[in-house]
Amino acid sequence: MQKSEVGEFLAFLTVADHGGFARAGAKLGVTASAISQTMRKLELRLGVRLMNRTTRSIQLTEAGIHLASELRLAFDQIERAGAAASAFGDQATGTVRLTTSAVAAELLIRPNLAELQRLHPGISLELSINEQIVDIVGQRFDCGIRRGDLVGADMVSHRISPDIRMLAVASPAYLATAPAIEEPRDLRMHNCIRIRSIGTGGVPPWRFGNGILFVDVKVGGTIAVDTTTVALAAALNGTGIAYLGSDFLAPSLRSGQLVPVLEDWAISRPGFHLCYPGRRQVPQPLITLTQFLKARAG
């Protein structure tokens, strides 16, 4: 494979992860026009349209979705191989101040704390749980964990988890007496447990897709919360339908306490990234933590 072809694939995946040419260009240090030209070259070389473009956004075609999925696996494997090799380097000593959401802490930090201490006893981790987007520099954090689509263009980011499959779920008790749910718009007849947006504080619509089209449903309900943990608790109590990531839901799904609906319409969101400011020297403890988490990305 030519070096230019690898560059085209990387540019395409950055567009797919960041949702547009401008943000992808900022991430890669090139102009949006250059990204657009690269995408046209890639489509011409592959002989297939990978994305539909409008003045405001881009939407991946079926071929584009498939290519992005395969490229994520390939690039993630390369990053994990490098991170695993680097983890054998000199031991780091120092403190890392990390801000993250409760879900990311539960999925990525808590299961790995013991191994982190065993492999890197010189690293101290100060963890702050916050559901809002925190000013990493202003509040003097070393790094943060955020979904890929919430990482600022001025940040260096490293993917540390796969994409997040979003599921609408409810308890068997709730579904037993509720109207049938056969397509996304049926959710308008249900009590939906809404989660306020991290960025705006508003309640965003729930997005679904079936491989052919995407549907945004503005759901209603008697409860709106700030955290996924509260939304999960409300769903477990039979309050209504929640819309959450499948990894976070896994224990409740395995136990049968929650049941997914509209699985054929489930979409994926960008996975979690560890990010930090790009315009300063990166301390060795943060480098080591980054390598450690990347090596364990599933």
Account of the protein in words:
With 298 residues, this protein is an alpha/beta fold. It folds into three domains: 3-84, Arc Repressor Mutant, subunit A (Orthogonal Bundle); 87-162 and 271-295, 3-Layer(aba) Sandwich (D-Maltodextrin-Binding Protein, domain 2); 164-269, D-Maltodextrin-Binding Protein, domain 2, CATH 3.40.190. The chain contains ten helices and 15 strands. It has helices at 3-18, 21-28, 32-46, 62-86, 102-109, 113-119, 172-177, 228-236, 246-255, 284-295, and strands at 51-53, 58-60, 94-100, 123-129, 143-147, 155-159, 164-170, 192-195, 206-209, 214-217, 223-225, 241-245, 259-261, 268-269, 272-277. Strands 7, 8, 11, 12, 13 and 14 form a six-stranded mixed beta sheet that branches. Strand 9 and strand 10 form a beta hairpin. Helix 2 packs across helix 3 (32-46). The model has no long low-confidence stretch (mean pLDDT 88).
Sketch the major β-sheet. Answer: 6 strands, mixed
DSSP, total strands: 15
The helix-strand sequence is HHHEEHEHHEEEEHEEEEHEHEEEH
> Total number of helical segments?
10
Task: Report the span from N to C terminus.
Answer: 26 Å
Mean pLDDT: 88
- Can you give the helix content as a percent range? 25-40%
Instruction: Quote the CATH topology of the largest domain.
Output: D-Maltodextrin-Binding Protein, domain 2
Radius of gyration: 20 Å
Q: Return the domain count.
A: 3
- Class from secondary-structure proportions: alpha/beta
CATH architecture of the largest domain: 3-Layer(aba) Sandwich
* Coarse morphology: globular
Contiguous runs where pLDDT drops below 50 for at least 5 residues = none
Work out the strand percent: 15-25%
CATH C-level class of the largest domain is: Alpha Beta
